[in-house]
Design goal:
By secondary structure, the protein is of the alpha+beta class. The chain is 33% helix and 28% strand. The chain has 8 helices and 20 strands. The strands form 5 sheets. A 9-stranded mixed sheet has the order 2-3-7-8-11-16-17-18-20, with helices on both faces. Helix 2 (58-76) runs antiparallel to helix 7 (177-191) and helix 7 packs across helix 8. Bound molecules: adenosine monophosphate and magnesium ion.
């Protein structure tokens, strides 16, 4: 059995694209120059998080935002004793912070909107596959069926800040926590007066400000699922660019590749034909929920979902299938440039 885990490579690719001045643990800043760059990284939520901010007060603002992300990890980690989710999963009931209750409610709503593609109650099934620990195995069909009996967000009770789960149910916010943390961190930077910043949460990107300080658009790489390079580059304004990819965590047993995003209908790795789904929109939380869901849905299901919801949601997407074909929604026609010459790019229209 072999396993691969790539977020560091992804973080590096992105950091090189966004922050040619460098990345790492150091911070630097000076007074009053809008081009002054401050940058610092922290390891949280199982990945490297790098925030780059321009202008005055960047260093202090980044520190507060990264401290908050670390705090949020402390609330939502499924594996740290002491987290609210850990207590809930262990005891079947917990009084949680308002922000945690709100995120769980959001996950319930998104489950309904995605017709079950996003399901935070899959945690026991994910654990059976070993995706939560790295001790990978292929569970037997009847083991999966038995575990699926205990899933279903409609069984989660939310009353004020008290959350209850039925016997045998456990939840995991891993598919949405980074996107929401990005929103919170980005808002903190804005509140601190930062007008231009880029946050890289393990390859998930959120920007503050419509442009870089020099007035040029932000450039964000969409990672190629087939290697360490990019499949394309996006030019964007203030937004979140969030990717779900099978390549981020998988194992191989008897020549079969098992990837970490499960289809809640089967309890097995989603076989939608997609290698990655990238969602671009104004809210990181929504983009994160959607990237996981659209990956499960595949090109046809995702296109249908986009057509049905694009008027109100205003999100765009880049889908890459196992044949290397790239599908972009029409709003990205002028902002997406494929990296490889001769790349096959189709445009999804309304
Ligand atoms: P993301 O990278 O945001 O797509 O999140 C993927 C992670 O969410 C996985 O590593 C699992 O921990 C968890 N997960 C896998 N499949 C699902 C699903 N269908 N719904 C919700 N969470 C999932
Ligand atoms: Mg996600």
């Amino acid at each position: 059995m072999t396993n691969k885990h790539f977020p560091k490579a992804l973080a590096l690719v992105c950091a090189l694209i966004f922050a040619p001045g460098g990345c790492g643990g150091e911070s630097r800043s000076a007074e009053a120059d809008p081009n002054t760059k401050s940058q610092a990284s922290v390891f949280a939520m199982d990945t490297y998080i790098t925030i780059t901010a321009y202008g005055e007060n960047g260093e202090a603002a980044i520190k507060s935002a990264e401290d908050r992300i670390t705090e949020l990890e402390g609330l939502w980690s499924v594996t740290s004793e002491g987290s609210e989710i850990y207590a809930l999963d262990r005891n079947g009931s917990a009084d949680v912070s308002p922000i945690t209750a709100e995120l769980i409610q959001f996950a319930v709503d998104m489950n309904i909107r995605t017709r079950g593609a996003l399901d935070i109650t899959l945690y026991p099934v994910l654990r059976a596959w070993g995706f939560t620990t790295g001790e990978y195995r292929v569970p037997a069909d009847d083991e999966i069926s038995a575990l699926l009996e205990n899933t279903g967000v409609e069984k989660i009770g939310i009353s004020g800040n008290t959350v209850t789960l039925p016997e045998g149910m456990q939840i995991d916010l891993g598919a949405i926590a980074k996107g929401y943390s990005g929103d919170i961190a980005a808002q903190m930077l804005k509140d601190a007066g930062i007008r231009s910043a880029i946050l890289d949460l393990g390859g998930n990107i959120q920007t503050v400000g419509d442009t870089k300080p020099d007035g040029s658009p932000w450039t964000v790489g969409v990672r190629s699922p087939f290697g360490d390079g990019t499949a394309g580059i996006l030019k964007v304004g203030e937004c979140a660019v969030i990717t779900s990819g099978g390549y981020e965590r998988y194992f191989i047993e008897d020549g079969v590749v098992y990837k970490h995003i499960l289809d809640p209908a089967t309890g097995r790795p989603a076989e939608s034909g997609l290698e990655s789904a990238t969602v671009i929109g104004s809210e990181g939380r929504l983009c994160d929920a959607l990237s996981t869901s659209l990956y499960v849905m595949g090109v046809d299901g995702a296109s249908e979902f986009w057509r049905a919801s694009s008027d109100t949601e205003g999100f765009e997407m880049v889908l890459i299938n196992s044949g290397g074909e790239i599908f972009i929604t029409e709003g990205l026609e002028d902002s997406f440039t494929p990296t490889a010459e001769g790349a096959r790019v189709s445009v999804i229209r309304r």
